[in-house]
Write a structure and sequence with these properties.
This protein has a six-stranded parallel β-sheet. A hairpin with a 2-residue loop joins strand 2 and strand 3. Helix 2 packs parallel to helix 7. It has one domain: Rossmann fold. It has seven helices and eight strands; from the N terminus they run βαββαβαβαβαβαβα. By secondary structure, it is of the alpha/beta class.
Length: about 180
């Protein structure tokens, strides 16, 4: 049976990051991205189209540096309250998995094919999500989600049996 999920849409802030914005007198300085997420996404990208979105206009250049320049994924600036319409215009909702954490993400989660949220998401969002992760945003939440998706929807039951031969993962530089 062919898997119905073709697209993984991930909200950057609060999922890939710890959700905090670090400011100085000059403005937004940085975001904290967690470990292992890129490696797990490298395993999942052979199965799904992976897209990132953010509503953070002021911090877009920071997200672009990590997501586009370093990791090689697509990133779009999408208002938190217009996400469902944006996704509808680009994809079939029932072919998408969405990972979000914010107070408006429930609008997407109640319509999308499958939804996931980090442990530290808003309570309202967690109630709307189909699966709540054990990890918090910025602390391997995306890695946990990727392994969950691989196991649940692509029937790869044992992580140790995933073939890493000829796969480029973010840690490849250390091998």
């Amino acid at each position: 049976m062919k898997n119905r999920f073709k697209n993984l849409i991930i909200d950057v802030d609060g999922v890939m990051t710890d959700g905090k914005f670090y400011y100085s007198a000059e403005g937004k300085m940085m975001k904290a991205f967690g470990p292992d997420d890129h490696d797990a996404l490298s395993l999942l990208k052979e199965h799904m189209n992976i897209i990132f979105i953010t509503g953070d206009k002021k911090g877009f250049s920071i997200s672009r540096k990590r997501i586009v320049d370093h990791m090689g994924f697509k990133l779009f600036l999408v208002s938190t309250v217009k996400r469902l319409d944006w996704i509808r215009k680009k994809f079939k909702l029932m072919e998408c998995i969405y990972i979000g954490d914010g107070i408006f993400d429930f609008m997407v989660m109640k319509e999308i094919g499958f939804s996931i949220t980090p442990k530290n998401a808003s309570n309202f969002t967690k109630k709307s999500s189909k699966y709540v992760l054990k990890r918090s945003g910025g602390d391997r939440a995306v890695a946990e989600a990727c392994l969950y998706i691989i196991k649940k929807f692509f029937k790869k039951k044992v992580f140790s049996k995933i073939n890493l031969k000829n796969k480029k993962v973010s840690g490849s530089w250390a091998i």
